[in-house]
Amino acid sequence: MPPVTSTPSSNTSNLATRTSCPQTGVPPIDGYLVCKGPHWLKDCPTATQAQRDEAIRKYRETKAQKLASMRSKAARYSGTTSSVRINGLIEMPYSLDTAADQSVMPQDELNSLRAMQPTLEVLKLPVAMEAVMANGQTQMCVDEVLLDLELATVAGSVASLRSVPCLVLAGDGDEFLLGREVFKGLGIDDEVDEFPVGDEIPLPPGATETENSLDQLIKRAVTNGLPVDQVGALRELVAAFPDIWRDGVGPGPPADVEPLRVTVQPDAVPYRSQSRKYAPLQAQYIRDYVKTLVDNGLVDPNNASRWACAVVPVHKPGTRDKFRLTIDYRPANNVTIPIAGGMPSAASLLDAFENFKNKKVFGRVDFTRGFWQIRLHEDSREMFSIITPDGVFTSTRVPQGGMDSELHFQNQVQAKLAPLIPHSAIVWVDDVLLFAPTVYMFLKTLRTYFEIVHKARFKLNMANSSLFEVEILLCGRLISGEGVRHDPTRVIALAILPLPVTVADLQYFVCTTNWLHDSLPDYARMIAPLQDKLNAERSRIGRRNRNALNVATTRSANERAIYDAVVALVADSALMTFPDANAELLLFTDASATGYGIIVTQARDWDAALPVDRQHHELVICKGGTFKHSERNWSVPKGSRLFCDHANLAYIFPPDVELKKHVRDRLQRWAMRLCGLHYTIEHFPGEKHVWADIVSRWNTRATVQIASVQTRSHQSPPVSSLSRLRPLDDENFVFPSREDIKVAQEAASRERSRLNNFSEEEDGVVTIDHRIWIPTAAHDLLARIFVVSHCGTQGHRGQEPMLLVLKNRFHISRLEDKLAKFVRKCLLCKHFKGPRQIRRPYGPLLTPVRRNEIVHWDYLTLGEGFGDSSYLLVVNDGISHFCELFPCGSPTAYIAAEALTLWHARYGLPDTLLSDQ
């Protein structure tokens, strides 16, 4: 597909285009094609025009031969199925067309994706794009969508690509077109000249890196809704501060803030870790990483340091040869006196959401390796030294992992941004959230922020920053001018969770849903039975860590209904609005013998002619709880709605009613508290007090007692009756049939009801995207399918070939994890632990249970120095390890027979003789 262009041509396109770079590089020092001198071809003093033309022709022929060789190699794999997984939901073939400027997705496939992911946003392009097809025809593209892509190739899965902009092409195409920018992100660029000779030498790599990052930053802002007439102003503003942007660690002075000075306990003893041994890849990574820090002045060699903490390289998620360097600063933190203060929590940020009221424009800016930008005081540097295979190095900047590091960084950033806090900015460690009511005010706020950052010498990261959003994600909540709502991806993920299988799964579900309780009315009452069950399980097990709780648990029908009710409540998570000073604020409370409920709403357009239950309410916050143990013994006065019913509150100021002394004192205290508030008390009959009354008075369910608990280690493995060595050759093995799949699908009706997009064929078999759906609970069926795909005619396939074969035919949830577990248990496959192979016998192990049942015998070579006794025959009992030694001059069968005959004469005939001879 030829490059995608925009129309009209006078407007600026946000897509990459092919442009010719001016010749600004250094001439080749190894000489050019004609005279071998260090100059360009056009500047050669001796070459004629014919020689120049001939040199260019030979160069182009060489380049064409190289490209033809590459195409022939690629053609060998042209028949291999390549697919792309989009947003983790659907898969479709993709075309390796690097001539396209941008990735393209057919409209029909996008409709299928939106059916499974209703929250997917399709954005309107500010300028219509003209797509030139391979046949010369053109189509107009007006929509764009951001997708997460995961490519599957013959070499396995490629790392996921996040938020890739893709054009939407009208039609019913069946292939996903990958653009040039996707391949550039993977390090593949067909425009890079592999023969940088003469006039076609490109610019040095990275020469336009800042410009490209700036274009991406502006493009993200336009995609998020930045008005077209403000694009120029934003570009000019960002370009005015080029020195505040940096992608990674680099040289330069630290930020102009107070250095971190750590106070150590008076009796602290310096700690020096022992030198550790690392794998070759880890050692090389540590060496390269520390060299980068030394070159940029972030650490200094200091082998005389009395302190030294160990470095611990850990694998990056999803990789085997990429690491992240962590440092064990626990010995230094144990003797540190922490500075006063506390890090901002999610609760404190929720209190700060009041500042977002009437704010329509948001932005997020991230610091580049924020801790490394702040200087560490000279008195505190030695205790943060690290020991590596190449020696000890002392940090000159604030280390990540120190006890005071995060709080000091937070305090310094807040001090610098004091003119913007809290009305225009909020600081969350190294993320800064900016907001304003209009685009014009936001650009002014952004300029003020850039000026502060420039003056303080902070460095920002373009890749992780967003300069314009109408709804921004913070602490798992989406914030907009309308209010605060929870991230839909989290809510959807919780709403489709299957029933908890283990106690750890139940604990995870309860704790995760509790994060949403502020927007879930009646949450405390509904989750109470599951919380009671979790407490009973943890008390029975006696331990609370996740590994100890990985034991199976049972579920009653009542508990399934409770779980479904909580999941439905999570799916209907309400939007929490910002309190409005001009709106009527309403507080609904109620308490009963079983629990309490508190709901705060507001009505912007209060209609005095309508009753309160007919007003348009907007949720501000809701709380609720159940009474347990001693809380049930509280004395409750007659009339449970003491704080909400006018008939009860009237007794606080009785003009002619005689009350008892203890009641009068209590009412007087309440009256003094109420005098400081501005409120209006209205009578609200209990039969209309629906919200809080339902929360507090709904019948609580009794705690379900556990019938039985069975650990995972004692569960019967799938196809346990077959041979573990060669299950496919077992006479009892039954190949899975379509009827078996249909029966398994009918048994998994609950899981089937949660499928987002499925179709049912004529024979009743459920398919998803034209692939047969296999239920997760059908363990025996899954095992038989895995056996067939693993132990087929092609021998024992590896995990990746099995994955490609099964993905084309079946839809199996978490297929990668299931395959990895299955392959690990194969006795005939080679398994590795690090660089070492785990050796396993190719046959069943014989384990004796009585003496003289199994006898092992073998020859041991002693050497020629022992003369006639250069060999030693060892005969050993398998269970008692009693052995007899027979020296001999040669290892012959006659000597072995004589020795075993003597063993039989003394101890009897062994049942089995084992030897490798």
Automatic annotation (TrEMBL):
Biased composition (Low complexity): 1-14
Domain Integrase catalytic: 840-917
Gene3D superfamilies for this protein: 3.30.70.270, Acid Proteases, HIV Type 1 Reverse Transcriptase, subunit A, domain 1, Ribonuclease H-like superfamily/Ribonuclease H
Domain Reverse transcriptase as annotated: residue spans: 295-479
An example Gene Ontology molecular-function term: nucleic acid binding
Transmembrane segments: none
Region (Disordered): 1-22
CDD domains recorded: RT_LTR
Domain of life the protein comes from: Eukaryota
Residues spanning the signal sequence: none
GO BP annotations listed: DNA integration
Protein name: Integrase catalytic domain-containing protein
